[in-house]
Amino acid sequence: MNLQIFLAISAVLFATGLAAVLSRANAILVLIGIELMLGAANLNFVAFWKFSPSPSDLTGVMFALFSIAVAAAEVAVGLAIIILVHRRMNTVDVDDADELKG
Amino acid sequence: MSEFLETAPVWLKDWVLGLLAGFGVPGWILDLVAAGMVVGTCIGIFLGLFALMSVMERKILARCQNRYGPNRVGPFGLFQPVADGIKMITKEDIVPAAADRVVHFLAPVVMMVPALLVLAILPYGRDLVPVQLDAGILYFFAVGAGTEVAVFMAGWSSNNKYSVIGAMRAIAQMISYEMPLVIAALTAAMVSGSLAPQAIVEAQGPAGFLPGWYVFTPWGFVAALIFYTCALAESNRCPFDLPEGESELVAGHLTEYSGFKYATFFMAEYIGMFAICGLFVTLFLGGWQAPLPALGFVPSWVWFFAKVCAVAGSMVWVRATLPRLRIDHMLGFAWKFLLPMGFVTFLAAACWHYAGRGPAGWLASLAIVGAAYVALSANFSRRFSLERRVYQFSE
Amino acid sequence: MIQNILNELAADPWGVAGKWFALAPAAVLLLAAAAAVVARNLVRAALALTLSFMALGVLFISLGAEFLGFVQLMVYVGAVAMLIVFAILLTRPDRLRRTATALRGAGPAAGVVIGLVTLGGLLGVISTSPLAAGTKCAPAATAPVARIGEVLMGSHVAALLAVGVLLTAALVGAAILAIEDK
User: B240 with B233: CB under 8 angstroms?
Assistant: First the structure.
């Protein structure tokens, strides 16, 4: 039960999120993929903290805590943008939002 | 004698474990048996309280409305839960044809599991906490988040417009009222210096002139009222029971549930109500502490359950008295009154602590809380003109 | 023979049950994430994502960061998942457009190929890195709440205040973006 197992789990999770972001058309599914990638990064931080030489510094845990807070803010703003796009263009397809003019 | 009663549950468990160890049972099975005994006792007690509550609520509501409640089934109707149980189990379980079967099946399970999990951290007596967690209060709210997922699953899987609208309203209500709830709980945790429930109970120490419970301080009283109101909203009790009101959206997110699944939702709601009453007692009413040192001969777990039953009874009383709030009034109340009031109470508690926890602290926190209350409730007052009533009788 | 396996498992610093306490939520996490990515139905994808968040929270708790696990459950399951669900229900697609869970033009090929290439690269780095190879865990790596409080208010107080400002800005921004102008 060493560090490599947790890093491998987080790598698989990251790759799953990446595949979702690159291959799905619905903006909300892209956001789901982004959340999976952020979760994988948090898992990496906590795994490195657990096996670090001085765990009482709590660096990994602090980083993951702030990452959770920032991810929550990002999801809120991202979903507000998606709802706004849906209201203007009546679609949440990422391929349809391809004009710079609103 | 009171010493023996006080430690009776722990003594009983140790006696059973000693008996099994005498038979040569290996260590890990003893751990499993110990855990099983604790879990089984907790769940058994709360299921018994649920059964008692379901009949006592109907009888208290009935007496408030000048009628008898159920009084046919046993002495004073006390075996009514048995009859209700038989009815629920033998009802036909109907699932709508276009419903999502897996999610429809899992929603009651996902609702029941958090309600049972939160019973693990409540301090039932002096040494009677099933799980000692450093961050027990946070665990309570983290596990309670699972209830919102269950409400959504129930509403959406029924494939019914009214269920979805009811579920959305229920989730909006739960999320809005969760914020003042957490802030009021954090006020008590901040003054006690720990997030562990047993430390919070011990900090509401031995009684002086008044018991040292937080409800007897100005900021504690306001925080307790905020917590109580949000607890009513989180368990979908009147006056916040719009999500499940019969005259509003049939039964909201529970429309398409019948038989045992409905009984599971019902059970989860009541056990959740007891759990949050237990947390209220832990945070503000001193947990298992006796009000006067002279009454210390009564075992601590008797005090805990007496207080929890009193708070639950008061919730039934509130249900009999107050009418239901409309959804926009409900959400406005949470965001425009309870949340700012919660922040101000947090500030008042800090002022009380830094002014020395004596009379100066009392005055300071009372002034802060009073000013905020007057300022915030000016938002909600309307000008009534009280005119003379004219009665019109039919001829 | 069973005694040998039990001895081997017990010699692990995590103990007999500890290994499964970490591996079971990890398995649930990966399966739920895969289900969230592959699902046809949008709400089922959101529910699978919620399950993966719960599994990640339990995984944090099993790694000893209990406070972080509870915060993950409270923030992600209680708030982020509910936000995603609300957004799904508020952006239902029209009948005439393509279905909500269609794939992009190149199909799944691009996403899967790039995902697999990334996975291969990461696993290669993990297995050959000298840092990760022989590390044994420090069994007393705990994060007590008092210590987290000291670190948050002590060395990380600037980050704490910055996160407060960020969350307020995000709250106001999201409300302004989504509010309907009547």
Answer: yes
Question: What DSSP assignment string belongs to B183-201?
Answer: HHHHHHHHHHT-S-HHHHH
Closest CA to C87 of A68, B270, A28: A28
Lowest mean pLDDT across B72-76, B152-156, B196-200:
B72-76
pTM of the model: 0.90
Q: How far is C130 from chain B (nearest CA, A)?
A: 36
Quick one: what percent of chain B has pLDDT higher than 90? Answer: 38
Give the chain B residue whose CA is nearest to the CA of C43.
B156
The beta strands (E) that lie in chain A are given as none
Domain spans, chain C: 1-95, 141-182
B168 has a chain C CB within 8 A of its CB: yes
Residue of B149, B156, B182, B183 to mutate for C, most C C-beta atoms under 10 A: B149
- Kindly report the nearest CA distance between residue B71 and chain C, in angstroms: 42
Residue whose C-alpha is closest to residue C87's, from A69, B171, A21, A78: A78
pLDDT band with cut points at 50, 70 and 90 for residue B236? confident
Of B307, B6, B182, which is closest to residue C71 (Cα–Cα)?
B182
What size, in residues, is chain C? 182
A98 and C102 in contact (C-beta within 8 Å)?
no
The Cα B36–Cα B361 span in angstroms is: 46
For residue B8, what are the CA distances in angstroms to A100, B11, B46, B151?
Answer: 73, 5, 19, 39
**Maximum separation of any 2 CA atoms in chain A, in Å:** 53
Digit-coded pLDDT (tens) for B9-20: 888 888 888 888
Average pLDDT score over residue span B190-209: 86
Which residue did the predictor score with more confidence, B314 or A88? B314
- Please check whether residue B357 is in contact with residue B365, taking contact to mean a CB–CB distance below 8 angstroms: no
Query: Out of A23, A32, A46, whose CB is closest to C68?
Result: A46
* Chain C residues inside the 8 Å CB shell of B28: 16
Fold of C1-95: Four Helix Bundle (Hemerythrin (Met), subunit A) (1.20.120)
Contact call for residues C146 and C23 (beta carbons, < 8 A): no
Question: Residue B67: exposed, middle, or buried by beta-carbon count in 10 A (0-12, 13-18, 19+)?
Answer: exposed
Q: Which residues pair with A26 in a beta bridge?
A: A93
**What average pLDDT does range B166-179 have in this prediction?**
90
- Rounded average pLDDT over C88-114: 69
Question: Which of B78-87, C18-27, C98-107, C113-122 has the least mean pLDDT?
Answer: C98-107
Q: How many CB pairs under 8 A join A and C?
A: 257
Q: What is the pLDDT of residue C96?
A: 47
d(CA C156, CA C177): 31
CA quadruple B55, B60, B66, B67: dihedral, nearest 10: 10
Contact B285, B310 (CB under 8 A): no
Q: Which residue ranges make up each domain of chain B? A: 94-377
Cα dihedral sign for B204, B208, B211, B217? negative
Beta carbons within 10 angstroms of residue C60's beta carbon: 27
Chains B and A: 3 or more CB pairs within 8 Å of each other: no
Bridge partners (DSSP) of residue A24 are C103
| Structure tokens that stand for B54 in this block | 């379901």
Residue spans of beta strands (DSSP E) within B112-227:
none
- Closest Cβ–Cβ partner in C78, C85, C144 for B145: C78
Nearest CB to C83; choose among A21, A70, A75: A75
> Choosing among A6, A9, A16, A54, which should be mutated to test the C contact, i.e. which has the most C CBs within 10 A?
A16
pLDDT at B251: 63
- CA of A100 vs chain C CAs: smallest distance (Å): 18
